[in-house]
Structures are given as structure tokens and as C-alpha cells.
Design brief:
Radius of gyration: 15 Å
Helix content: 25-40%
Shape: globular
Number of helices: 8
Strand content: 15-25%
Strand order of the largest sheet: 5-4-1-6-7-8
Structural class: alpha/beta
Distance between the termini: 21 Å
Length: 179
């Protein structure tokens, strides 16, 4: 599945204990649907959600760092059991430092999935910076890996599958569904 990827990428993925995700453009398509009364609606991908759950079950912590403060994201984070949720984080580097302390992980044990320049302060510091296919070209320059799928359309599932593949937990977990 991922055996075609460079071995140094697999080695970095094997070391990850914390997956950090942005929201708009990563967990969603980056589109905001704004109703007549100003309410914002977002769509989340269920494949991403299940991948996050499987990754958590394999022992990897998950987190969200987003600049927005959004009730829909808070509800989705709660549904998925994402305990580390930093919202309104315009300084993502500061949130990242607090998060690492809370999660008790080193920088090389963190992966960050981003799509825009606001994510770079975290991406350049973590052990595995990942950009989604629809990320800004400048962000892709700093990514160790770029997903094939777009943000909001299964990109996070690609990431969770990669991490689990590298940590040799993916196939046993997938095989549970065929028993």
C-alpha cells in the first residue's frame, strides 16, 4: 500500500505519537457555507473520521489546532474523541508548544497536516510535516509528504493509514473488519 514511499518517510511516520490537524482545508474542503443569519456550515469526511478513530485505537494521540472558533468543529472533535482541541489559535506555534507539553511528546514524535501558510509555524517544527493535495504551493515546499487526496475528501484518512502502515498497525486493524 505505502511500500513505494521512501524509507526515510516511513521511518519518520513510524515514530509519530501525535497527529495534529488543521481544520479548514484539511478536515474540510476549505469552503465555508454561510447562511442568511450568518451561521457557518461545514462538511466533514466520514472516511477521515474513521481513520482518526482507528489511529487513536492504535495508540496515537490526535489534536486540532485551528485559527477559527467554531461550534461545528468542537462538536466534530468531541464526536471523534479528539481531546486536544486548540481553537482561535492565531499563533499556532504557541498552541503547538502548549500541546506538546500536554501530550508529553517530542517534536520528532509529532506530525502536522496543513494546507496554508498559517500552518507552517507548526509544520516546520514537527517531525513529519504533511500537506494536503490542495495546499498552497509554498506550504508544499515544506512538506515531507503531500497527500494524493484533497482536504475534506479523504486526505486525513491517507495520513492515518500511512502512520498506521509505518507502525504496522494498519493491516491488523483492517483485517478485524473481515472476521
Amino acid at each position: 500500500m505505502f511500500s513505494h514511499l521512501p524509507q526515510d518517510l516511513i521511518a519518520r511516520a513510524k515514530n509519530i505519537k501525535l497527529l495534529i490537524m488543521d481544520v479548514d482545508g484539511v478536515l474540510t474542503s476549505a469552503q465555508l457555507f454561510i447562511g442568511n443569519n450568518g451561521e457557518i456550515t461545514k462538511a466533514f469526511n466520514t472516511l477521515d473520521g474513521h481513520g482518526i478513530r482507528m489511529l487513536q485505537d492504535s495508540g496515537v494521540q490526535t489534536a486540532i489546532i485551528t485559527a477559527r472558533s467554531d461550534e461545528a468543529v468542537a462538536a466534530r472533535a468531541k464526536q471523534l474523541g479528539i481531546t486536544h482541541y486548540f481553537y482561535g489559535a492565531h499563533d499556532k506555534k504557541e498552541a503547538y508548544e502548549k500541546l506538546r507539553e500536554l501530550a508529553n511528546v517530542r517534536e520528532d514524535e509529532c506530525a502536522m497536516v496543513g494546507d496554508d501558510v498559517i500552518d507552517l509555524p507548526v509544520m516546520v517544527r514537527c517531525g513529519l510535516p504533511i500537506a494536503v493535495a490542495t495546499a498552497h504551493d509554498f506550504v508544499k515546499q515544506y512538506a515531507a509528504w503531500v497527500t494524493q487526496k484533497n482536504g475534506g475528501f479523504g486526505a486525513v484518512r491517507e495520513v492515518t493509514d500511512l502512520l498506521m502502515f509505518a507502525q504496522e498497525t494498519l493491516l491488523p486493524k483492517l483485517n478485524e473488519y473481515t472476521r
